[in-house]
Write a structure and sequence with these properties.
Layout (H helix, E strand, L loop, with lengths): L10 E3 L5 H12 L18 H13 L3 H8 L4 E6 L2 E8 L7 E6 L13 H5 L12 E6 L17 H14 L5 E5 L2 H12 L3 E6 L13 H4 L4 H20 L2 H8 L1 H10 L1 H14 L7 H12 L4 H12 L14 E6 L9 H7 L1 E7 L7 H4 L1 H14 L1
Parallel strand pairs: 4-5, 4-6, 6-7, 7-8, 8-9
Antiparallel strand pairs: 1-2, 2-3, 3-5
Helix pairs in contact: 5-6, 9-13, 10-11, 10-13, 11-12
Length: 388
């Protein structure tokens, strides 16, 4: 691997939000027009008013954006143009010169804020009680259309195009061999990079697309499975049914009418908060720090990228490959499965189209693994790449 030397088109970047934007946010929060709700309905219809009002109160009167901004600016950040898109990324080099390069990709409704608590242990394990041999150079890009990489300026930014752009980014940084990691959309992007780029040494995921049972199992689906595997397959179907009945609405809207949705979320900070905070409540199994949640929301609000981030769903749903089975990947792949993930993942399905070499089942945590259980995720990432 040659030494990293930034090219001229990698522009150093620091977050510096004008005070007027923060003042505008506070004024909007003060003027929130609240809807009614059915007493005692809890979360059945969506995020409850009492829960959201307390979160808004904290956002308005206690949350400190400038502190969050300074913390993010501790990471070296850059921007560059790739395939016509403005791409923002953090690039945190390890003090260990022989560290393994690792590209980590967030999902929706996340951001690079998700990686706050894993950056230190991954880049400098010696300072966090680990083995220096497990060190990584981290590249943390914002997906085009999301936050500081948004908005996108043209149609067609589905996950395969994102994967190609991020592979180009790693090449610009001088990395000839590297690993990839991700969950949610980051899982789709990371898997695609591993599938298409021979320089990828391994793919670590905390979600594998299409590795769950999306229809009622037939006898042929259970043939040859152990009793435990068969029971897990049925559970996967039950979990998917619940998802399709009660939790998939946001994805259907973002896959069909992201522009219509964007007007409300871009004009109302409480609307933007509710749209994201509901997911952080329902998709997690471990508490997420309230300040990190709000910092994540701020990256959507301050950049007005509710609509352009939602377009990723639309572009995928309208791509020519939509509905086709996933193309096989030969890249060595690891799955860290957290029990409160939205789907019950099945190894025997994942192995049909992935080269699974490591499969770890955890007892706690959910969809936002890096935020919920950073120590567990760090340990699994280290173990996987150490084995390679």
């Amino acid at each position: 691997m040659r030494r990293v030397i930034p090219e001229e088109n990698l522009i150093p970047f620091r977050i510096d939000i004008p005070q007027a934007d923060l003042d505008d946010l506070h004024e909007r929060l003060d003027r929130t027009r609240w809807p009614d709700e059915i007493p005692g309905s809890g979360w059945a219809y969506g995020i409850p008013g009492g829960h959201l009002k307390e979160l808004v109160r904290y956002w308005r009167h206690a949350y400190d954006w400038r502190a969050a901004e300074a913390k993010l600016n501790a990471w070296p950040q850059f921007t560059t143009e790739i395939d016509g898109a403005h791409v923002h990324f953090a690039h945190i080099r390890s003090p260990e010169p022989d560290a393994t390069p690792l590209l980590m990709t967030h999902g929706w409704p996340g951001s690079i804020v998700e990686f706050t608590d894993v950056v230190g242990p991954l880049t400098d394990p010696a300072a966090h009680g680990g083995d220096p041999a497990d060190a990584f150079h981290l590249v943390l890009p914002s997906i085009p259309g999301f936050g500081l990489s948004g908005p996108t300026r043209e149609a067609g930014w589905e996950f395969r195009r994102v994967a190609a752009a991020f592979a180009e980014l790693m090449g610009r940084l001088g990395y000839e061999r590297y690993g990839v990691q991700g969950g949610d959309w980051g899982a789709a992007v990371s898997r695609e990079i591993g599938r298409t780029r021979p320089e990828v040494i391994g793919v670590h995921l905390n979600l594998i697309p299409n590795a769950y049972m999306a229809r009622e199992p037939e006898p042929a689906d259970l043939l040859g499975l152990s009793p435990d595997q068969a029971a897990r397959t049925r559970l996967s179907w039950e979990r998917f049914k619940e998802w399709a009945r009660d939790r998939q609405g946001y994805a259907d809207i973002q896959s069909t009418r992201p522009q219509t949705l964007a007007y409300g979320l871009t004009d109302s900070p409480v609307g933007q908060l509710a749209w994201i905070a509901e997911k952080f409540e329902e998709w997690t199994g471990s508490p997420v720090d309230r300040d990190l949640l709000l910092t994540n929301v701020m990256l959507y609000w301050l950049t007005a990228t509710a609509g352009s981030s939602a377009r990723l769903y639309y572009e995928r749903a309208h791509a020519d490959y939509w509905g086709a089975p996933p193309e096989p990947s030969k890249a060595p792949t690891a799955l860290a499965h957290f029990p409160h993930e939205n789907f019950v993942l099945l190894r025997h399905l994942a192995e049909q189209t992935n080269n699974i070499v490591r499969w770890t089942e955890f007892e706690r945590g959910g969809h936002f693994a890096a935020l919920e259980e950073p120590d567990l995720l760090v340990g699994d990432v280290r173990g996987f790449f150490r084995s390679l």
